[in-house]
Design goal:
By secondary structure, the protein is α+β, with helices and mostly antiparallel strands. A hairpin with a 2-residue loop joins strand 16 and strand 17. The chain starts with a helix and ends in a 17-residue tail after the last strand. The N terminus and C terminus are likely disordered. Pfam families: DAGK_cat (PF00781), YegS_C (PF19279).
């Protein structure tokens, strides 16, 4: 029996033989079908608000977190692996929980979760401490990520401490881990970007190079509710795990590039290290079969090089991978890449870099797209879909990445949008507002 056949056998025994069954197992909030691929964004946002309200039921992540907090069932009551890193002058360190022994009845209003590999911790303290005092907050709770815990455990520690604001300082991996820990709670998240991509901050137009500006926005009080991507990963053999992502997920060559990118090169040349990894991966890339089904739609089988699932669409360099994506519409955008050879990849580049990121921004550019035969040919290499969820089944175990994090190999995945499940600090002019989508040239 071939490896592919064995994978399909394992998948079937794990309940993956019917994508229709996957669709029916998703929560009701994620199962309303999108009637038209051109639905106005206002309608999507209205429906998203309704969906978000439904997640306040007793089975919702937010309610489960509230019940866990009230019952005392948290990392702080069971013991913690979190390291205490900074308690402030004169504070007594209690190593049992990794938290400070504060004055009676004084709770921290802020927790700072920092990746010490990515961020200058001392400099960050010097910025946050006076800014927090000026904003009327108590001494912040400082928590460092570790090699074994990218931030999920620290987010749970912050929730148990009763904070109202969490500052996440680090790269995309740190941000994703903290988002995963805060998803479904009412605690606000402030971003202090310090990585290579900083994609969530880019999509929210937050400062990328000034820690002081980022801290000022985080403490400013303006916020908006955004969706969080949710995925159930199915491994070869049937085991399952649940994860969150803030920006996008990828299967195929996209995940292979993320897994093979040189860390040292990322430090020296930044996001261009991904280009180098892509140049190594492209010659070896071969299309593979994928079964996919949008919620409420029919099942399809296609041969692809990559499948990307996005909560928002902006990449480094101002590239718009998903030009019509909105981070608060309760839906996910999907790109299916099917290039044929080198010229096919050049068409992909033309579509993403030139058409999506330049021409679609203007009325005259969109008119050019409608009339251009070359534009129509480039669309053959990328298919765009949108829906509240999508289920994927693969021919054999393949790599998957979430916000750049390598999550290993899977034989299937079920994606859904968790609407308005995270409150995030933004610039005042962006509070409770979203950027309108760029009108389609299709």
């Amino acid at each position: 029996m071939t490896a592919a056949a064995r994978s399909f056998t394992c998948a079937s025994s794990a309940g993956l033989s019917s994508l229709d069954a996957w669709a029916t197992r998703l929560p009701k909030a994620f199962c309303s079908a999108r009637s038209s691929s051109k639905r106005p964004i206002a309608s999507r946002r209205t429906r998203s608000a309704s969906m978000a309200e439904s997640t306040r039921s007793g089975e919702a992540p937010r309610s489960r977190w509230e019940c866990r907090t009230r019952s005392g069932f948290s990392r702080s009551t069971e013991g913690s692996i979190t390291r205490q890193v900074y308690a402030g002058a004169g504070a007594r360190v209690v190593y049992r929980w990794g938290m400070t022994d504060r004055r009676q009845n004084e709770a921290p209003g802020i927790a700072v979760i920092v990746n010490p590999v990515k961020m200058p911790v001392t400099q960050l303290r010097e910025i946050v401490a006076p800014a927090a005092r000026a904003a009327g907050f108590a001494e912040p709770l400082w928590l460092e990520t570790t090699e074994d815990d990218a931030g999920q455990g620290m987010a749970a520690e912050a929730l148990a401490a009763g904070v109202e604001l969490v500052l996440a300082a680090g790269g995309d991996g740190t941000i994703r881990a903290v988002v995963e820990g805060l998803r479904g709670s009412e605690v606000r998240l402030g971003l202090i970007p310090g990585g290579t991509g900083n994609l969530l901050a880019r999509n929210l137009d937050l400062p990328l190079s000034s820690m002081a500006d980022a801290v000022a926005i985080a403490l400013g009080g303006a916020s908006r509710a955004i969706d969080v991507g949710f995925v159930e990963l199915i491994r070869d053999g049937g085991s399952r795990s649940e994860h969150s992502f803030a920006v996008m997920a990828g299967l195929g060559i996209d995940a292979e590039v993320m897994a093979s990118t040189n860390s040292s090169l990322k430090k020296s040349i930044g996001w261009l290290a991904y280009v180098e990894a892509g140049a190594r991966a492209l010659p070896k890339a071969k299309p593979f079969p994928v079964d996919y089904q949008l919620i409420g739609r029919h099942r399809h089988t296609v041969h692809v090089s990559t499948v990307l699932v996005g909560n928002c669409g902006r990449l480094q360099g101002g590239i718009e991978l998903f030009p019509d994506a909105a981070i608060d519409d309760g839906e996910l955008d999907v790109a299916i890449l099917q290039p044929r050879g080198l010229f096919g990849w050049l068409k992909v580049w033309r579509r993403v870099h030139w058409e999506n990121s330049a021409l679609k921004r203007t009325a005259i550019g969109r008119r050019i797209l409608r009339l251009s035969p070359e534009s129509k040919r480039s669309r053959e290499t990328i298919s765009y879909l949108r829906g509240s969820g999508i289920a994927l089944r693969l021919d054999r175990p393949r790599l998957i990445e979430l916000d750049g994090d390598d999550l290993g190999e899977v034989v299937g995945a079920r994606f859904s949008a968790d609407p308005s499940s995270l409150r995030i600090a933004v610039r005042p002019e962006a509070a409770e507002a979203a950027h309108p989508p760029i009108a389609s040239g299709d």
